[in-house]
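Course assignment 3, question 2. Fill in each field.
Student: A.L.
Task: Predict the tertiary structure for the chain below.
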Amino acid sequence: MTELPSLLILTFSPIRSDPRVLKQVELFKGKYRVTTCGYGEAPEGVDGHFALPGDSRGWPSDKLGLVARRYPRVYNGLTAVQAARKVLPRGEFDVILANDLNTLPLAFELQPRLGVHADLHEFAPREKEDDLKWRLFVAPFMRWLCRRYLPLAESVTTVSQGIAEEYTKDYGVAAGVVTNAAPYSERDVRPVGTPVRLIHSAAGQRYRKLENFIEAMRDAPDWLTLDMIVMPNEPDYVAELKEKAASVPAIRFRDPVPYARLVATLSEYDVSLVFLPPTNFNLKNALPNKFFEAVQARIGLIVGPSPAMVSLVEQYGLGAVTPDFSADSLRATLHGLTADKIAEWKKAADAAARPLSAESQVLAWQKAVDDIAGPRHARA
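Answer field:
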């Protein structure tokens, strides 16, 4: 029997806690000889793994190089790139699936026999455009990476239609879309609770304006509660949030749960708040994991007027859209909730769980990588 073609899944992230990369592993193992490279231990079921040192980094720190626009030097200085070069063989893989823009030059340097597919998790040139220093010094480096390396990829995917269209407009590459959909979960629709339980999970970062949730719940009726799961990205900010929420009895902070238990945990609630103020381009066009996890949990959604989320909420009848991103707008939407309305949203989530599952979305990755592997994969 012809040997399966080899595939390297390359990322500068901790693979075991990166849902998007784990979906790639699940999709391709057994169909290809899958090797992974990233932080931490190997994910289950792969044929090989190259672990990067935990203290290596995939973002630029060469300030002089950035100011002088010596971008090859800046890239070569990324410690994750240096570490990967020491362990990864050249010319040994048929296909490389490169996650995020910062892995792309390395992927080509490794000389895959058949080609590279680029999966871009953000619109990299505008990822932190709300930060002036980043906009002045790092954004030009990201634009250089896009101009230099995106045209070399056999195919490109990203996380939402708005981001795909921006890559096409700015860099002339045709980008497909693979959303951050959660795997399909078989479960029943639970009745609406008393009190109605809301949930919001987020990275604890100031630009996300999580204080909006506290203000929106400050005078909440006694039939409404909100649990918040906030990761300690910016510990000082998270501490401020908890201090502000101390006087709001309807709010409780709870500890994060492992990704494998997240959908089951969400199913204990009635409505998920997925509310991302558009403080930068990527947040404006966001279609995050938490949106799809709520669908698999069979609970309702309340979202801000983020175009990608609004489109799906309206198409499938999944919940409500606030008029804007203010705390007042969110408060008015929450106070207008009824058990009957939430029950309809839960039924709609159940109907949408299959078409909005990861299993439906990852077919675009399957086609892209199979097209690169070509006849060799067909024979295998």
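Instructor remarks: The first strand starts at residue 6 and ends at 14. The longest helix spans residues 132-149.
Grade: pending
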